[in-house]
Amino acid sequence: MIENNIRLSILKIPRIFKRAIVMIIDGLLSIFAVWIAYYLRTGEIFIIWEKYNEHYAIPAFIAAITISIPIFTTFRLYKTIFRYSGSQAIVRVVKAFTIYSTIYV
User: Fold this and answer.
1) Does 10 reside within a domain?
2) 9 is a domain residue
3) Which domain range does residue 96 map to?
4) Is the pLDDT of residue 79 over 80?
5) CA distance 35 to 47
6) Share of the chain above pLDDT 70, in %
7) Is residue 7 part of a domain?
8) Is pTM, for the whole model, over 0.85?
9) For 52-74, b where at least 16 C-beta lie within 10 A, e where not — what string?
10) Dihedral (C-alpha) 81, 89, 67, 53: value to the nearest 10 degrees?
């Protein structure tokens, strides 16, 4: 019963807001992925806005978001994932992720 109410309340949200929520989550996950990459590289946990080895990490976080969101939008991932999750959606995700990782690295 509770699951049904949650499902219905999510379905009532307009599509544009659902996409915005997913884009925000993608941005936050991009930041988290870069932060984890810094941790794996340095072996130290650091605060995002503090200077580390005479450099700030914020430009890397901004780059991750400004590269990933437009690429994922260009490949219509936000539209595809909400409509269906077939093999075509998986191919689009792989293509978008490959381009994103190639540009970012």
Assistant:
1) no
2) no
3) 17-104
4) no
5) 9
6) 86
7) no
8) no
9) eeeeebeebbeebbebbbebbee
10) 90
Both structure tokens of 95: 């293509």
pLDDT tens sequence across 25-64: 888 888 888 888 888 888 877 777 777 777 777 888 889 8
C-beta of residue 31 within 8 angstroms of C-beta of residue 104: no
Q: Do 79 and 88 contact (CB within 8 A), yes or no?
A: no
The CA–CA distances, whole Å, from 45 to 16, 26, 35, 41, 94 equal 36, 22, 9, 10, 30
Token pair for residue 12? 């009532």
Residues recorded for the chain: 105
Report how many domains make up the chain: 1
Percent helix, strand, coil in the chain, to 5, is: 75, 0, 20
Q: Which residue in this structure is represented by tokens 């340095």? A: 42
37: in domain: yes
Q: How many Cα atoms occupy the beta-carbon half-sphere of 73 within 13 Å?
A: 14
